[in-house]
Amino acid sequence: MSSKITRALPELVENGIITDEIAQNIKAFYGNSEESSANRLFTLFGILGATLVGLGIILIMAHNWDDFSRGVKLIFAFLPMLIGQAILGFSIFKEKSSAWKEASTVFLFFGVGACIALVSQIYHVSGDLESFLLAWIVLCVPLMFVTKSTSAVILHLIFITYYAFEAGYGHNTTIPHIYFLLLLLALPSYVRMIKAQTKSHVTSVLHWLFPMSLIFSLPVCIDQSEGVGFLMYVLLFGVFYNIGQLPYFKNKSLLQNGYRTLGSLGTVIILLILSFRDIWKHQFQDVYFDSLEFLCAMILFVIASVLLYFNSKQNALKSMNLFHFVFLLFGVIFMIGLFNDLLPTILINALLFILGVSAIKIGAEKFHFGILNYGMLIIAILIACRFFDTDITYVVRGLLFVFIGGGFFTANYLMLKKQKSKK
Fold first, then answer.
1. Are the C-beta atoms of 301 and 327 separated by less than 8 Å?
2. What are phi and psi of 48, to 5 degrees?
3. Where does the chain cross the membrane (predicted)?
């Protein structure tokens, strides 16, 4: 598209449609854009190439591993890491492009992991996957600060989430508090990228990776009071939604704003789970107010409340919607649920229905088909969920589906018609 425009510029200047100065500005703009796109591709393929080379070296060594003496094995164990350090040092001191730094950072990251694993194997060092991952992550933390590499931050987030899985899920009940410290270590690099590369796609990726890491790792904080886990998740999604409404994210699309998208989707999914009465009957009998889970919930509540207060100061109250306040309403419903199972079930169903209507209203006001259909989908899934715990005849169920399908079609048709009339 840009090449077509630049080719048409001489003709536009010749016919007096644009001036020569404007033509030069347009050419410079698309020239910079193409150059930036080429650099991104070069960086991406550089990272992919470094990963494949690293894996290839490891496979070649693995094939002949048993034939090597211990000394040779040790040299090969350190070799990928030393090569990675040499290339990274070269790219930093020679001020090479970001593609060099990103590719060498990825190579060095995996080189460190391979070195730890091979040395452990050569000397039969005992240990488990949890300690291996922790040693690997900690040794690679300086990469985020020395290289200022985006790949280092992304790999750090992925591997600390894996560490939280390994250390806190299933057979191991130890709460890996160090996960949160490692997450905090990535924050300075994240903030730097937000300031320096606001419109970068990589920064948008981090807007998804940070909240997703917390979503997947939050259960490691649940020790003895599983019911509080639902409260923790609703509060966490309240935090995310309110972060996604901060001025920095105001003009970003849903794809660029992982906080708002995950906050909204996560809230709805948890509320849909809690719309079943059986959950309230069986999951809230082990709530302890002096537990670690409840302390985490209180911290999340304070953070969400501060963000809500900040958003209310920045935006007019009428521009805020129900999704901003769900965590507050759920806090009240949660307390009621400790003594009764019917009333919170009714309140959650009502809240979900109002959230669906609220989303439809927002979608209609903004002429946004995605938000409009999201609201209708919430109501449709809520109705479908009630098929499982209510005694409704198949005829009524069929009629409800016909009504929902008709509603989808009518709402989209009316909004499309209204959008065309505006033009």
1. yes
2. -60, -45
3. 41-62, 74-93, 105-123, 129-146, 177-193, 205-222, 228-249, 261-280, 292-310, 322-340, 346-364, 371-388, 394-416
